[in-house]
Amino acid sequence: MILGLTFATPLLLVGLLAAGIPFLLHLLSSVRAQEVYFPTLRFLEMSMEKTARRRRIQHWLLLLLRALLLALLAVAVAEPISEATGGWLSGKNYAAVVVLDNSMSMSAKEAGGTRLSAAKAQASRLLAGDDRPALAAVLLTNAAAPPELTGRLEEIRQRVSQAPATHARAPMAQKVAEAMDLLAAETSVTQKAVYVFSDMQRASFEELLRHEGLDRHKDIHLLVVNTASDAVENVGIRSVEIDGQPVMHETLTFIVTLTNSSPTDREALVGLRVEGRPTGQPVRTTLRAAGQEGASRVVRFRHRFSQAGPVSGEVYIEGADALPADNVRRFSLEIAGRIRALIVRPDQETGLPPALDPAVCLRLALDPFGGDASIPWPVRPTVISAGELRPETLAGADIVFLANIPSLSEVQAAALSQYVRTGGGTAAIFLGPDVDARAYNQRLSDILPAVLRNAVGEVGPDAPAVGLEWVDFRHPYFEGLYANPGDYLTALVQRRFRVEPLAGAETLLRLSGGEALLLTRSPGEGACVLCATTASPRWANLTTNPIFLPMLLRMSLLSRGGPEAGRMHLAGSRVAIQPKLPPSARSGAKVVVTRPGSEDSWTLPLGADGRVVFTETAQPGHYRWRVTGADAEAAGAFAINPSGEETDLQPLPAETLSAGLRRRGLGRVYARESLAAASAAAAADTRGRNWWDYLAVAAILVLVIEAVAANSIRRRGEQPIPARLNPRVAA
Amino acid sequence: MAKSSYLYFEPDRVGRLRNLNLLARHAVEGFISGLHRSPHRGFSVEFSEHREYSPGDDIRHLDWVAYARSDRYYIKQYEQETNLRAYILLDVSGSMNYRYEAQLTKFSYGCFLAACLSYLMCRQQDVVGMIAFDDRVRFHLPPGSTPAHMDRIFRRLETVKPGKRTAIAPTFHQLAASIAKRGLVIVISDLYDDPKEIIRALQHFVYKKHQIIVFQLMDPAELDFPFRKILSFVDMETGQKLQVDPRHVKDAYRAEIRAFVDRYRKECSDRNIEYALTPTSTPYDQMLLSYLARRKALRR
User: Fold this and answer.
1) Min CA distance, B210 vs chain A (Å)?
2) What are the tens digits of pLDDT across the range A379-398?
3) What is the pTM for the complete model shown?
4) ipTM higher than threshold 0.85
5) Helix, strand, or coil (residue A110)
6) Nearest CB to B236: which of A37, A44, A721?
7) Least enclosed by CB within 10 Å: which of A51, A323, A555, B263?
8) Long-range pairs for A675-681 at CB < 8 Å and ≥24 separation?
9) Within the 170-209 window of chain B, which residues sit less than 8 Å (CB to CB) from chain A?
């Protein structure tokens, strides 16, 4: 050690001898200058005398600069390292928090065990080895209990060895922050470190990179030990989405996303089971190697449920791989009975042929098969006259269609309004020639999406027609019907009501010229749809247009609300169960949750708000619940799935993590493939700062100064000396 | 004017100077009544001053006007115009053979100047002698004014070659002692010797009542020192060498040479010696033209 510095390559200090080269050259060399006659040397000699001192100083200064330059370079290449103000933790009093990743990806099997077992082994080595901390705590990524720092390392080792594998994702950013906060609060030691034993699964650690605020703990070392290897063979189900309405006879689409974490291409056999029984043949698909395009694939299954009621099932991958837990993804659905559609026709017979009767057209569109029980159809329409429209008839309907109803009584209007606002139903109003616009505006203004004005347009074989200019084909009524947007715009309308959209209304169809044709509004729990023309060919060809039937079907299916999102949950999440009980039946009620196929059972009291929060979701599977002790009955089911993010077993590169955290101000980050390597990296860095770069910069500066000093008065060009003044030539 | 057959005489150039006379500013002795004032107050053309009548004086020179005024007798005295006797001292030492970028070496310039001055003075019926010297007198032509004398001067200039060393002061002392009659001494030299000794030697001329004009010839490179790269300067007289990096000494050199020149200027001025720093980059006829014009203006 010299002057408090050690050197990474002390042998290269021999280069300091090069600092003597300028002096040696000065002694050995002599500049052979060109000779030139001059009348007298008298004044030159006097000038030399006068400037001798200055010249000597300049000369020696240049020599010293050159020597300094060479010395700086020699020392720079020897890499001087200053001793750090705080040494490394080895053999010293320090505190450590062990963050043990026990997320789902850690259950992946690798040579000799699982990633979690490898992590536990390394953590135990730290806690039992020569470099063990004086104080320690263990923080599981998937456990809630906050630890305390303790000197009883045996207890910590036990907790490490007993740490269970889970099916949840690792909230790594949160846990590392908790670990650092815990250490920061400890004042009995000055040296602190967080050791993370994890597979550095990409999703968790990318979240760590984005986390703000870690740089306030700059003095805490962060050592990340990657306990995963790169060669893991696994294809997992990342997610399952269900598209469609869970209604009897309605086809649902199961969209399955698969991820390959293997270093090679892999084939997967994916199937769908409902109530334990496969629904058709599994689908074979090939996924490219991890990191390549095609490493993720989507597989679709279509299934129609022919009975109403709760249904459970799963999407599965046949065969075993490194992580079986992500080979199954469960779902739980409540299949509703057929949609009850109520079609209200005018009281008075119109005398129109069926082809022009809007009620007939609606019925045919809503039930093309005429109620044939042998043909599964999700909608069951019923036609009533306007006089039969009462609150009790509305109560049983999912959707009500008004077909050219002239007006509604106040009672009917109030009932319809309540049906929509608080009942959650959908009122679809098709106008027609008999409609009293003023009456509609007066009595249904609280649910109508627009104000009705006068009817415009002529009818007749030669009457002009206006076409559709715009369709909101992102709306669920029209989404995905056609590949070409132009295929939507084929309807023609001759006569229609002019309407003025109200605040909160959405226009779904618009005619050329900008008039709204179909609007919707959601005043409360339900929705009101208004069509400005007839539901028959009297005024428009809408009913014979390809969008009419799917529009009505979707309108009906969606009248029961959006897709049920509340029945699939991730492991470790909190599940809110809200039985549909009247407030009077809540008192004293309990919810019993069971997991079929096991003896697990939990009983939770129903809250005053009519819900319970179930938290025992560590184990994936199907769960059922039922209400007991209440005057009404209620039951349901839900599924718990492992974290979909954890199916991507590829780790975040250690360099990416280190560099990213250093950019965030966390300078002491060491991510390596083993505890020994991480500790060595931290020890090397903590030895002190390597000053080679500063020395190199200093050498460059000296070089520049020397060049400027040596050439400070160099003029542009040089004057040639006439030959007559050259003694050699003159001679 | 006919083309000259002399190396150092250019009639075209000299012709421009013919209207200017090299007039002595002070009284000098001469043997031909010319344009120059004579120190001898005799009875010549121009009235100088009165003196009281002494018995035996020539009464033709009584100033009757003065008598009417003062009732006393005064004799008029007159300044006698004489011919100028001039000596041109030309330095032909080794250092005079130098030129850098000027067209002429100091030596050639000096020869042209000497020839021109000789011609001018002979033309105004003055007598001029030429002495060339380095560390000794190389040739001595006594004063004369005939065309044959001019020819001798011009031819002699052509034959003399620059010598080696300089010894100005001893030579000047020697010449000052040898020149009997007072006259005009024109020194054409770079004066590269001990200034103190040279001044003392010039003082010797002053003491002998000579009028002195010094033309100090310098090449512009000697004044400006325009060199940039490291050179080994070789003394033209001694052969001594000195390696110099001009960047380091330029400013100091210029200061030294300026001090050297200024010393001569001041010392000459103090002793009423006319001094002209003569860079050889200025054509000698132009230099002489402006010098004589200045001189004429001063005389008025």
Assistant:
1) 30
2) 999 999 999 998 888 988 99
3) 0.57
4) no
5) strand
6) A37
7) B263
8) A675/A122, A675/A125, A675/A126, A675/A195, A675/A223, A675/A225, A678/A195, A678/A223, A678/A224, A678/A225, A679/A90, A679/A131, A679/A223
9) 190, 192
